[in-house]
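Crash report, auto-generated. Payload:
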Amino acid sequence: MTTVKSPFPGTFYRRPGPDADPFVSEGDEVKAGDVVGLVEIMKSFHEISADAAGRVVRFLVENEELVDVGQDLIELE
Amino acid sequence: MQKVLVANRGEIALRVVRACRELGLATVAVYSTADEGALHVRRADEAVCIGPPRAGDSYLNAEAILRAARETGADAVHPGYGFLAENAAFAAACRDAGLVFVGPTPEAIEAMGDKAAARRLAQGAGVPTIPGTDGRATVEEALEAAAEVGYPVLVKAAAGGGGRGIRAAADESELAELFGHAAQEAAAAFGDGSIYVEKLLVEARHVEVQVLGDEHGTLVHLFERECSLQRRRQKLLEESPSPALDDETRSAMTNAACRLARAAGYTNAGTIEFLLDRDGGFHFIEMNTRIQVEHPVTELVTGIDLVKEQLRVARGERLRFTQEDLELRGAAIEVRINAEDPARAFMPSPGEITALELPGGPGVRVDTAAFAGWRVPPFYDSLIAKLICVGADRDEALARTRRALDEFVVEGIATTVPFHRELLADPAIQAGDYHVELLEQRMVAA
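Recovered output after restart:
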């Protein structure tokens, strides 16, 4: 079990755009380096990628939720 | 007009509060929960919390802002820049609510906000535009126009803005290939797949003209600002006068700006942006229908307080000066101090400012709402201060800016101060010999 953490404070997004599909959903397999979300900080968007391969167990934050630096975003196994 | 609600935050909200105070107008600040204790809140006479941190829930929430105006009895709204400043529907909602909107009419905002319409207006006023298709084009029209004006060309989304939705095509096959993608992307991103094509002006300079009009038919320009030093289309340093303009070009450009503003029925403060090509030709790009971030540069070389003039014009006063009264004296330079780390690709750097020492002395102005102990929130623009220095000539302004940057101390967060120290030591910048692509070219080379 591992978690993807936010490298910055800001707003977390599960999808690349308002009408787009989420980057990943529960049950998806991801590889290390796969983009799993975005964090908006000071009007700029930064891709959040998985640092290890695994399966997405659950999201620990909601889409558009405010997150802190180091906060757990996604649980992987 | 007696009480002005300032629909913004940070340094520009404080700037407007100060102008109101000097004119004897009462002020209402609005703030999100992330800005409790912010300086613009403390400096205003009253303050109303308008929602949670995300801008969409607070500073972009027109309904909450209008409610705050109603509850406090404000009779005017100053939008600052960004947020709702160029939102015609918001300006109209203010008017409908019986509030004075400190800016142009909703009709003028709308007319200049539509790029194709603004371009047609410019052409009608005899203002040169960038060669290309007139408004939206089919792929055949795009290819035909590109062959005529010459490659490379830019493929732009008609509904895009702020540098979004723009791609370059080097030749015919690239344009044919890009066109479909661009239309699809524009439809997804902006809800409008219209595309237009214009010539890419290589190593051009960005020069803009400040205009100011009253509601009685008088409109003047306040000369130009040179804003070519940009990173990712975000300006980092601005100056006036432009080192690139001779008197003849300056006169032609400022006249063109006034013709276009008059054609648009423009009132209050606005900025007309041009690209200056390497052959000295200038081309209209767009108009910003608000006060600009870099307005202090113009204030320092003309002696005119633009924000106070905005308020005077909004309450129906006539301009107190004519074009002949205005003179560009000396030179001024602004550098933007952002909470970004130049050593880490300008990564945003919010957090607590643990120590702050601002420069001072002759010819130095700092516009900021920062203070030691303030926590820069991660939710908004990274601009935390503007350093503006004026001198009898450009050399003195440059020397002052360098001296002031040496005095500038911000601890706790990374800022662009070290970047500007290097920039001001650069021989090309000192010579005034630069263009809009320079900073990006340097960063790629490094």
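Post-recovery validation: Chain A has one domain: 2-76.
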